[in-house]
Amino acid sequence: MANVSIRKVVKAYEGDVQAVKGIDLEIEDHEFVVLVGPSGCGKSTTLRMIAGLEEITAGEVWIGGDVVNDVPPRDRDIAMVFQNYALYPHMSVFDNMAFGLKLRKFPKEEIRRRVDEAATMLDIHMLLDRKPKALSGGQRQRVAMGRAIVRNPKVFLFDEPLSNLDAKLRVQMRTEIKKVHQLVPTTTVYVTHDQVEAMTLADRVVVMNHGVIEQVGAPQELYHNPLTRFVAGFIGSPAMNFLPVQVIDDGGLKVQLANGAKMAIPPQRVDRYGPHKGKKMTLGIRPEHMTETHDQEKPGVQLLDALVDVVEPMGMETLVHHFINGVAVCSRVDPNTHCRPGETLPLAIDMNNMHMIDDQTNRVV
Amino acid sequence: MSSVVSSTGATAGGAQPRKKYGSLEQQHRTTMRYSYAALSFFVVVFLIPPFYMIMTSLKSSAEISAQQGNPWIVRSPTLENYAHLLSDASFQRYFLNSTWVTALVVIISMTIAILAAFSLSRMGFKGSQVISTGVFLTYLVPPSLLFIPLFQIVGTLGLINNTWVLVLLFPTLAVPFCTWIMIGYFSSIPKELDEAALIDGANYPQILIKIFIPVAFPGIIAATIFAFTVAWGAFLYPLAYLYSADQATLTVGIVRELIRGDVFAWGMIMAACAIAAAPPIIIYTFLMDYYVAGLTSGATKG
Amino acid sequence: MADGSTMVVGSGDAMSPAPRKVGSLKQLSRRRSTAALLLCLPLILLIVGLKIYPTFYAIFLSMLDRKMNNFVGLDNFAFLLTRPSFHLVIFQSCLFAITAVILKAFLGFILAHLMHNIRGKNQRVWRGLLLVPWVIPLSLSTLTWWWLFDPSYSALNWTLEYFGLDAIPFLGTRWNARISVIMVNVWFGAPFFMIMYLAALKSVSEQLYEAAAIDGANAWQKLIYITLPMMRNIILITVLYSLIVTFADFDIVRILTNGGPQDSTHLFATYAFTVGIQSGNIPRGASVSLFMFPILATLAFFVLRDVLKRNKEVAS
Fold this sequence. Notes:
The structure holds three protein chains of three kinds. By secondary structure, chain A is α+β, with helices and mostly antiparallel strands. Chain A has helices spanning 43-51, 93-103, 108-122, 137-150, 167-183, 195-201, 219-224, 229-234, 267-273; strands spanning 4-13, 17-27, 32-36, 58-63, 66-67, 78-81, 155-159, 187-192, 204-209, 212-217, 241-249, 253-257, 262-264, 280-285, 290-292, 301-313, 318-324, 327-333, 344-350, 355-357. Chain A is built from nine helices and 20 strands. In chain A, the strands form four sheets. In chain A, strands 6-7-8-3-9-10 form a six-stranded mixed β-sheet, sandwiched between helices. The mean pLDDT of chain A is 90. By secondary structure, chain B is an all-alpha fold. Chain B folds into two domains: 2-46, no CATH class; 87-300, MetI-like (MetI-like fold, Orthogonal Bundle). Chain B has 13 helices and no strands. Chain B starts with 22 loop residues before the first helix and ends with a helix. Chain C is an all-alpha fold. Chain C folds into two domains: 4-61, no CATH class; 80-315, MetI-like (MetI-like fold, Orthogonal Bundle). Chain C is built from twelve helices and no strands. Chain C has helices spanning 22-62, 75-82, 84-117, 121-135, 138-149, 155-162, 174-202, 206-215, 219-247, 251-256, 268-278, 282-315. Mean pLDDT of chain C is 84; it is low at 1-19. The interface between B and C is large, with 95 and 97 residues.
């Protein structure tokens, strides 16, 4: 059993600065969990506490059924892939991968077998004799993964492993990592600031902010049902649009924008938002749900005119940036849609995917 | 299947955080304790000579010869040694000689080194690599090999027993390493800086003066300190080529003139040493970081 | 300008510069090369005139007789090799250099590690204190050591007797003198090694140690598998450099023992001084100095090879 348990874990530095403010998390065996959040949210600190590289101020970390708070990293049966790869520059790729096994006095044949296996899986077999400085970034990252794989640990820890790679390579390596996890389904805790990585790799995503966990859930869950303003704005690219509105009853439950425009709330949501009649709240709509108008719109879609500010053709779609009542808003339209800066573009807002955020609690209603 | 887990942060009030001083923390503390203990021991050992130098310098001849009790402390401190030295014409001469020689040597050495370093690191021309490696190599030719042939050469030049000979010779001690330091610092200035300056209309002398020297200023200080240290403390060359008291520098003057096999003059000798060691120590106290930077630039900048 | 008119640009710049001719680029680069060479000239003159030329001159001198009239070939060298006192010089120089450098490297390494454990501003203070031996001019600190070793007044002996031990004649017997000379050199030189090794230690990324910790290394294994290999270059260079400098040392022996007792602490440098300048036999003094040359050249060769290798690595 290689599950990871984090119970009320706190990390505080001198001067009572708390990087991690008491978090709880249960990670199942074989699960691929991604800790995601902006810089300084505490995700790396949490990972390092699991690894044993940071002292745990309070709380407990369990790995595979044992408390590991006082256990040094080498005895936790974990492996880690660092952002800067941390390959031993004076050793060959083979020796880098074999190092951990050599220290634990594995027999030579066993070491060779494991390294060969991992090298084949990662397609770095021809690099075994080279030194790290003769490798490209992607190759180094694979060696770092190989080093982790041969150890056959209970948990894999990844600390922003793709941050140092260029965009194209990042996409490639993402797929590699997912493939490896399919072949070697070790429990994995993966830290990144890139929410796209989080969404594509994770079984479950843990969104962190300022040392606390905002939400935990499967990627789709976080996308469709964010629980806090932060999660709503963090997940999804381009980010969700936030518009200040007021809930009114005008022949049906509606939201009214500052400029007076009204949009009806779809029937299935009326019960949810009814109690907030008269309240000033924030409306959240993703850019993909603000599109060009069609001849026939499905039920729940409302029309809104918006002044075009900047147009960004992306090839398969066009991002259009507007200002609605002084709030910057982004919509995704069909690339053939005609729009120019300064013109008014009619938008179809799919209110079926609307989110309402309470301004006092910052929670999604 | 999402779990709504968002804790409300601070541990204030509720559950008491179990402060775990686990094995990591304890290990760290013990290491620190041992480190401090060991370092203290070495500091004491390293500082015994300077400490004793000062102590002795404050003793009168009577106290030294009497040998009563603990020699590590001064019973009746006196400044008579210092007074005597500072009013002694010969000693003043030594100090003066050391000062002006060192000053000139530093200026000459730094000029040669900066010009050469600028040329070698920036205006790459054929053979520049050979010259820089060659310069580094000749640094390894020690004065103790050169002083004999130089004796002949110096004699031919008529500079035996003339303090000016040091101004000629000391640069050879300082220039190679100073050049090496400056090359390191100049090389680390990004080429884009020169290119921007060239586009702005500067010529090479202006680039050197307005850009390189200011940006590499730490290196210049480090190299200057090195040149100063070498010139101030040099012993072999002055010993070999200077004979009369009025030509001698501090190091030679103290060793040769003050030591007359007379035990009781140790107080004065130590006082002289303290005065002579003061300038490097003072510079070191204020500019220690540059001292270290100068040394390690060889290591880290290759 | 395209239409043929010239534009007046700002103050001082009356006319736009004449269009560059292709040929002048070459002129420009040649002018730069000459300028560059000129800047290097003082350095080259200094080195050639006061280091390279004297070296060859020394070779020439060593092959003359005492009066420097006749050419005697390698007689001086042959003569030296017959003298037992010179055998001692060879032995002592090697012993001195090797022992002192090993001790300095070892001590410097330990000190660097101890210093490295202390983070933050405190490190500066300790480093400052420990560098002092290196800052004081060697001849002056050697004088102090002489005073500390004085047969009648030694404060060290007083301390030994205070604890009930026997006084040691530090400079009185042959081996004591040798050990004392080595100790003074170690005292003086260890800070240099400490500083260099500390810089090297700092340059090793902390993440490597973390990766090793996760791989299962304990402190000792981290030292052997990570620290030492990463520091290999700097250790090599400092040891080689120190060997050269220690081998050619003059100040300490001259002041402390002047070669005695009974020539047991003479090094090449001090022996050359005694023979060449004090006794006035310049050619023979030159031969003594030149004996150092093969060893220095070999060491310099290794240093050169390492430096060139690193230059290539940096360039690649």
